[in-house]
Fold these 4 entries.
Entry 1:
Amino acid sequence: MFPKTNLYRKRKLYRTPGLCEQQLRCRFSSLPSPPPPGTWSQLHRLPHRDLYRLSVTDPDRFWGSAAVDRLRWMRPFHQVRDCDFSSGKINWFVGGKINVSVNCLDVHAENHPDRVALIWERDEPGTEVKVTYRELLETTCRLANTLKSHEIKKGDRVAIYMPVSPIAVAAMLACARIGAVHTMVFAGFSSEALAAKIQDAQCKAVITCNQGVRGGRLIHLKSTVDAAVRSCTSIQHIFVSQRTEQPVVMGELDVPLDEMMSQHASVCPPEPLDSEDSLFLLYTSGSTGKPKGIVHTQAGYLLYTSMTHQYVFDYRDGDVFGCVADVGWITGHSYVVYGPLCNGATTVLFESTPVYPDPGRYWEMVERLRINQFYSTPTALRLLLKYDDCWVKKYDRSSLRTLGSVGEPINHEAWHWFHSVVGEGRCPLVDTWWQTETGGICIAPHPLEEGAPIIPAMAMRPFFGIQPVLMGEKGETLTGDSVSGALCISQPWPGMARSIYGDHQRFIDAYFKVYHGYYFTGDGAHRSEDGYYQITGRMDDVINVSGHRLGTAEIEDALDEHPAVPETAVIGIPHDIKGEVPFAFVVLKEDVGDDPTAILQHLRGLVANKITKYAVPEHFLVVKRLPKTRSGKIMRRILRKVVLETTNDLGDVSTLDDPSVVKEIVETYDLKK
Ligand code: WT7
C-alpha cells in the first residue's frame, strides 16, 4: 500500500481503490514517477537528434530511464529530480539508495571477474601491472575494512595524497564502499596546500605512499604529508602504502596500509547510500584566494560520467581506455576511475610523463597496451609536436579509435598534429569542454548524427541534457548564431556539483547569482553561424597553466606574505607550450635597495612552498604602483595590455584612479625587455 505521508493523507483521491501507485502518480504530476525498467534500452536506439531533444524536453524520462536501466540500485528512487538553480538546490534520483563501488566493481566481478579493470602503466616502460575486476573488488574491500577498523565511518572525510596507482583507485572506491567522502589532493601540491585542504574538509585520515616515482625521479610524499599534518588537528590516522622499497620511519599516527590490508577480509558489505550523499570533494581554484571544495554526490555523478564516457569517446564493451590524467584532478576521477569502471572498461593508469624515457612514450604505450581511446591535454600535445614525427610513426597506432583533448582551448596546430600524425586522419578527435564543477563533459563533438562534421579545435555540441546559453554584457540572453558571450547552462544535469564544502552560500553566489537562475561557467564562448560552440577562455581571474587551474589571487596571497612586498598583481600571459603562465607585477617597500634579485628568488620559493611549482610566476616586474580603480581594485586588464603591447587600446579607463600609472608601468616594462 501507499506510504502514509501527509501528502497522501490530505488528498483523498489517493485512496481511490483500484488505482495502482503508478496510475496515481500519473494523475498527480507533483509526484513524478521514474520510467519503468527497459525504457532506456528502447530510447537509446533513437537517432541522436531525437535523443538530444528528449533529453532537454523531458529530462525526467531521459535521465530516469537511463538511471533505472544503467545503474544497480539498493532502493529505487521515486523522483528523478528536484532542482532550483536560484536557491542552489540540486537533487537527482530522490529517495534512491545506491553504492557507487558496487556499480564500479561487484556488477562486473559477477559478469566477467577476470576482465582487466586497471592497467597500471608504471613509470618504467614495459613494467605494467594488470588488475582484474575480481582483484580490484577484493583489494577495495580489504582497504574498506582497514578504514572501518580505524573508525572511519560514513560521512567522514578522508584525504588521499597518492600518485596514479591501483591502490589510489582502491582507496577512492573503499571510501565509496563505506560512505566516507574522499578528497584527492594532487601529489604535486606542497605540504601547505595539502594542509589547507585537510583543514577545510576536517579530514579524519590521510592515505598516502612512502614515495612516488615519476619520470625516473623519486618524490617524497610521506614527508610532505608529515609536514602538512603538523598543522591539522583533525587527522587521526595516516595510512602509508609502499610504492617503493624505501622504508619510512613510522610515527604515532602512521598505519602500514599494505600490511593491515592483508590482515583484513576481502569481503566488505557496501553501505547503502542516499543518491545525494557526498561521494567526494575536490578542491579547485576560484577568483578569490581560498580554494573551493567542490562537492559531488553519488548517483547523478556516476550516471553522468558513465554516459559521457560511453558516448563521447565511442567506448565499446571490452575497449582499453587510455586517459593519461592524474587521479588527483577531476579528469582522473571521471575518466580514469568512475566513468570507465562503471562501464566495465579496462582503464589505463598512467604514472609517468609524456617524455619519459623519450618523446615516444605515449605511442609506445598505445602499441603495447592496444589502447582504443586516447585522452590527453593540449599542453602535452604542444610539447610532443616539437619533436620529430618519427617518435610517433615508429609505433603501431592501429588500435586507436577515438582521440580526445581536455583542459584548455586546443590550438589548430596541436589539433591537426594529433589528428593527422597520431590518428593518421582516421580517428575522430573530440575536444571536450567541462570543469571540476560540471562533473563530466558538457560540450564535445560526440555524440553526433551520422555523417555530421567535426570541426577542428572546437568543442561544438552540447551533451545530452546540456542547454548552453550565451549572455551579453548587460546580462541579456544572446539569441541567434554568430554571437559571443558568457557561457551559462540553463538547466540542471545529473553530474553537476552540489555545493562548495562548508559554504553553500559561496556556491550560490559564484555560480547562480552572476546570471540569476543560470549556472555560470566562468568561461566565454562563441556560437558559430552553424550553432556550434567554441570556448574562448576564462572571463574571471582564473588562469590555466598546462591545463591546471590557478586563481591569480592565490598566487598574489603567497607573494604578499613576503615582508618586503606590500602589493602584487598576477596575470596570465600566453605561452606556446603551457597555454598560459603567470606574470607577477610586484611593488616593493622603498627601503629594500636597488637589487631585487634575492627578494624575487625568495618569492619564487614562497609560491612553490605555498601552492606548487607550476604556480611560480615565469616573469616578474618590479613596479612602483599598480593601476587601480578609484575604489581600490587592481585593474589587471590594463596590466595584460601592457605585456601584450596593446596599450594603444586600453578600453574603458574612466574608472582608473591615476592614469599616469599606465605610462609609468609601460616605461618600466620597456626598460626590462
Ligand atoms: C576550466 C576547468 C575539465 C577537466 C580539466 C580542467 C578550461 C577545460 C576545455 C576545453 C577550452 C577548456 C575552461 C574551464 N577548459 N576544457 N576543451 N576547451 N577550455 O578542469 O581544472 O576545473 O578547469 O578549464 O576554462 O572552465 P578544471
Entry 2:
Amino acid sequence: HKKVEKICCIGAGYVGGPTCAVIAAKNPHIQVTIVDLNADRIAAWNSDKLPIYEPGLDEVVRSCRGRNLFFSTDVDKAIIEADLIFVSVNTPTKTKGQGAGYAADLGYVESATRHIAKVAQGDKIVVEKSTVPCRTAQSMRFILEANARPGIHFDILSNPEFLAEGTAIADLTNPDRVLIGSLNTPAGRSAAASLADVYAGWVDRQQIITMNLWSSELSKLAANALLAQRISSINALSAICEATGADVDEVSYACGLDQRIGKRFLKASVGFGGSCFQKDILNLVYLSESLHLPEVAAYWRQVVEMNEYQKKRFLNRIISCLFNTLTGKKIAILGFAFKKDTGDTRESAAITLCKYLRQERANVSIYDPEVEERQIWMDLAEPGVQDERKELEKQFTIAPSALEACKGADAVVVCTEWDEFRNSKLDYKKVYAEMNKPAFIFDGRLILDQKELEEIGFHVEMIGRPRSNFQTPKDWE
Ligand code: NAD
Ligand code: UDX
C-alpha cells in the first residue's frame, strides 16, 4: 500500500486542529496542512493565541508549526498536494426543512467533498473525520465520482474521532482505539492500511482496528449515545436520591465498583452539554425513524429528554429554595463552559439555565475562567433578535473573577466543575461575607464540600442529595 507523504485536513476546528497537530508532531516526515474557509480562525492558528483552549495544545502546535504543520486558507493547493484528505468540518443539527431538530446538516461535508472533486488532479484517500450518519461515505463517493476528472480514483475511509474536549491532547496521544472503516475490497483495504501507518507513528498496532464502513460510521454515534445514556441514567437516579435521602455520589460509587458497570461517566450533574452528545443522539433518533424503528427512536430520544428534565429540575429547585421568586435577586453563575478545561460553550447547561433565569427576571452575574465575554453575549442572545445586547445588559453582567461574581448575590450556582471553584481553591468565607443572607449555594457538579460550607453559614443544595430542611425551624414542626 501507498505511503502517505502529504495530508490535508479540511476544517480547522476543535477536531481538525488538535488531531492533525498531533499527527504532525508524531510523524515529522509527513507534511500536514490544515485548511479552513474561516480566515480569522486560520490567522489565530498561526498566532500566539490559538483559537481554542485545550491543555497541552500550545506545546504540540509550537513543536511542529512551520516545520511540517501548516495552517492555511488556500484549500485548493492543500487538496492538490495531498495524498490523504481528512474531512473534519462541522455537522450540526439541521434547523430547517426535513428532519429539522434531529437530522445532521451535511451541507458542509458535501461542499468540502465537491471541492475535493473539483480540484483534485490525482488519486486521493478521502477520510470522513466528521461525525456523520450511517452511509454518508456512499454519498461522498457518488459526488466524488460524478464530478472528478477522468481517470482519478478516490478511496473513502471512515475514521471517527473519539477525543473529548479538555483532554483532547491526552486522548489523541493515548487513544483507547483508533477506528478505520473501509470497503472490503483490495483498494479499500489498501487505503485503510495507508491510514493505519499514519497512526502507527505513535499508536500500538493492536489498538488500530479496521472494519466495514457502515459499522465504523455507526460506532461513533453508538459510542456517544452509550456515554450520554449513562449520564442520563445517573441523573434520573439523582432525582430519586433527592426525594429519598440517598446520595447519588454514593450510589454511583457503589454501582461503579461492579466491573461490568465501571466508574466513569456516572457523575450526576446539571446535565450534559457539548457539541456532540445531543446532536449525535438526535441523529441516531432520526436514523431510527427513517428506518421505521419508532421504538428504537423513542428509547434514545429519552436520553435527551432526561437531560432537559434535569436542567429544568435544577432551576425549579433554585426557585423553590429562594422562596419561590427570583425577580430582582442576584444569582452568580460559576462556570459557563460545558465542562472544565475548555472554553467551548456549545450546548452548555449554563446557557439553558441563564435563559430560564432571564425569564424569571433574575439578575445574573457570570464568571468563567476561559470562555470569552463575546461568546457569552452571543450565547445569551436569542437567534434573530436585533439589538438585544442592551436588553441583556439590564439583567446580565460578566464578572472578572468568581469572587466578584458572588458579591451581593443571593445564590451561587456552580455550573461547570472548574478546579478553581473547589473549597480548597475559592475563599468561601469571603464569598459568604459579601453575599446577601440567607446565602444559598447550588452545586450542579458535586464538587463542593457541603459540610464545610454549611459550617461557614451557607444553605447548600447539591444535585442528587436531599434538600436542606432549613425552611422548617425545629419549633415549628
Ligand atoms: P468546528 O465547527 O469547530 O470546526 C469545523 C470547521 O470546518 C469550521 O472552522 C468551519 O469553518 C470549517 N469548514 C466548514 N466547511 C468547510 C469547507 N467546505 N471548507 C473548509 N472549511 C470548512 O467543529 P468540530 O467541533 O471540530 O467538529 C467537526 C466534526 O467532528 C463534527 O462532525 C463533529 O461532530 C465531530 N466531532 C467533534 C468532537 C468535539 O469534541 N468537538 C469530537 C468528535 C467528533
Ligand atoms: C464527547 C465524548 O466523550 C467523546 O468521546 C466524543 O468524541 C465527543 O463527545 P465531549 O463532549 O468533548 O466528548 O466531553 P465529555 O467529557 O464526554 O462530556 C460531555 C458532557 O457530559 C459534559 O457536559 C460533561 O460535563 C458531562 N458529563 C460527563 C457528566 O455530566 N457526567 C459525567 O460523568 C461525564
Entry 3:
Amino acid sequence: MSCPIILGIVGDSAAGKTTLTRGIAQILGPENVTLICTDDYHRYDRTERAKLGITALHPDCNHLDIMQQHLSLLRTGQPILKPVYSHQTGSFEAPKYIKPSKFVIIEGLLGYSTRAARDAYDVKVYLAPPEKLRATWKVKRDTQKRGYTPEQVLEELEKREPDSQQFIRPQRQWSDIVVSFYPPNENEDESNGHLNVRLVLRPTIPHPDFTEIIEAGNGDLESAVRLGLVRDMGKPVDVLEVDGHATLEQVNKIEHIMCSDMPYLKSICDREINPELGKIAGTTGETLQSYPLALTQLIITYHMLKATQIYQ
Ligand code: G6P
C-alpha cells in the first residue's frame, strides 16, 4: 500500500477553496486525486445548529477527532468510511467508502486546528482573500447555489465573524503557503475578473527559486511579477505577487522555467493548457478566471510533485 501525498486547503467560508481544489485536481488528473471536504465532519445538521445557536465554524460543531483519525488513516494509504453532509438539504446522508488515490486534497474550515491533523499534510495552503471580496463571493454562491437571500447571507456572515476570528483565521500561521486573490484597486470588489494574487511562501517547505526565475526572465517578467521579503504573523516570509494583467507570454515563461526540472509538470506546460486551467470556475470563483489563478494552481501542484520526490 503506497502512501498518498496530502494537500490541505483551508480557509473561511467562500474563500475560494473549491475553485482552487478543482483546478489542482484537473492538473494532476482527476483519476489520480481523492477530494475530501471536511464539512462532512459537521457534528450537527442545519436544524440542530440553529436550535443550539452554534455556527459550523466552531470546533465543537465538528467531529474534529474523527476527522483527525481519518486523516491519519489516509496518510498511510488506508480507506475510510466518510460521513456525508449535504449543502443542499443541510442534513447528513449515507457515509461513503473512500480509498485514497495517489493524491488527496482535503479542503475545509478547520483542517489545521489540531496538531495531529496538521501533521497529516505534505503541503498546507491557507486561502485569505480580503474580507470584502469574500463577502461578495459568499453572497453570490449562497444565493445562486444554496437557496439563501442576500440579506440572510450577510446576516449569517455577521453572526459567524467571532468564530471566524477565533477559530478560522489563526490557522493561517500553520500554512506553508497563504494565497490571497485581491482586486488591484482596493475600492473595487473585482476588476473585470482581473484579480492579482499574493502568495506568502513560508520557509517550511522548499519553494521554487523565484529570484532565479524572475532573473531568468531577462526583464520580461518584472512588469507583472514581484518578489519581496516581509513578515507574516511575525515570521519572515517571501511574498510573490502576480498581477491580473500578466500576459500569456509572461505566465508561460514562468511556467517553463519553473518546470524545467520536473518532467511531468513540464509536459503539462508543453500542452499549453494552463490558460484553460485558470478558467476552472468553482461555485465561488467565476471571477478567478485569470493567469494568477493558473499560476497559483501550478505552484501548488509543483509542491505536491516535489513532495513525491522528497518523501516517498
Ligand atoms: C458555510 C461553509 C460550509 C459549511 C456551511 C454550513 O457555508 O462554507 O463549509 O458547511 O457553512 O452551513 P449551512 O449553510 O449548510 O447550514
Entry 4:
Amino acid sequence: IVALGLGSGACQTKTTTTTKPEPLVTDLYTADPSAHVFNGKIYIYPSHDIEANVPEDDEGGHFNMKDYHVYSMDKIDGKVTDHGVALDIKDVPWAGRQMWAPDAAYKNDTYYLYFPVKDKQDVFRMGVATSQSPTGPFKAEPAPIPGSFSIDPAVFTDTDGTTYMYFGGIWGGQLQRWYTGQYDATLKTDLGKDNEPALSPKVARMSNDMLTFAEPVKDVQIIDKQGKPLLAGDHDRRFFEGAWMHKYNGKYYFSYSTGDTHFLAYATSDSPYGPFTYQGTFMEPVTGWTTHHSIVEFEGKWYLFYHDVELSGKTHLRNIKVRELLRKPDGSLELIKP
Ligand code: FUB
C-alpha cells in the first residue's frame, strides 16, 4: 500500500497495491517495448537483444540485434505469449546491421511494423513491413521509407484517424548527423553547442497507405514553461531518444528518454505537432544505460511498458516489464521510482 502525493498543495492519499514488476519474458532478452491494444488484446513489439560479442561503444555497436519477436497478453499480469520471429534481418534486402527499437500500427485492414536498421552504408533508416496478423510474420518493403533517417519510430494514430511517426535519437541514433539535411558521419554525439537549442526529435504525417511520409519531416520543438527551447547542454531535460506519443483528455503527451541522464521525461501540447511544453520526469533511471518505454491504455487504466537489466546485469541484454502509470487529477504523470 503506498501513499501518493497528489500535487497542487493538496494533501491527499490514495491507496494502491504495488508489487515489484517482474520481467515479462525470461527465455530471450527483450527491450524497447512498444505496446498497443488491437482487438481488445495487448501486443508488444520489442527489440530482441542478443549477445553478439561486439565491444561496448558510444555508438551502441553492442546492440547488434538481428530479428524481432511479437508478444501478446490477454490481460496485464496474464500469460505472455511469444509468437516467434516476426521479421528477420536476412529478409530485409537493404539492411546492414542493428535492428533497433520497432513500433507497430493498424490501418487499412493491415498491421504495419516500423523498424530502424542500418543500411549497407551503416546509416540508420526506417523500414516498414506488413502483415494481415498483429503477430506477423511481416513482409518488408524492398526499400526504406523514402526520406527516413535515425531511430526509434513511434507511430501514433490520432482520434481523427491521422497517423504520425515521431522518431529520432542522438549519439548512436545518428540524429545529429542530419543537422544540415545532408548526412555528416563526423558528428558522433551531438553538435557540441551546449548553449544552443537541443536537437529536436522529428515528426511526419504518414500517407494513407502507411508506407511513406506524406509531408516533409518537421522538428518537434520542446520548450520550457517560459517558451524557450531546451538547450543542448541541459542533459537532464533535453530529448535523447525513445519517443512516444499518447493522448489524454484531448492533450498530446510527448514522452522520451534523456539518454545519458537516464530519465523518462514528458512534454505536452494541444497539437500533435507541438510545440511541447516540458512538464518533468516521470521515471527515474532503471538499471542499465538505456531507458525506453511506451504508454498504453487498457481496460480503463494506463500502463508503462519499459525495460531494465534485472536478468543479465548487462546494458545490452535487457528485459521488458510493465507497471501501472498513475496520474494526478490535473493529468500530470506521477513520478515512478523503479
Ligand atoms: O535498443 C537499441 C537502442 O537502445 C534503442 O533504439 C534505444 O532507444 C535504446 O533503448
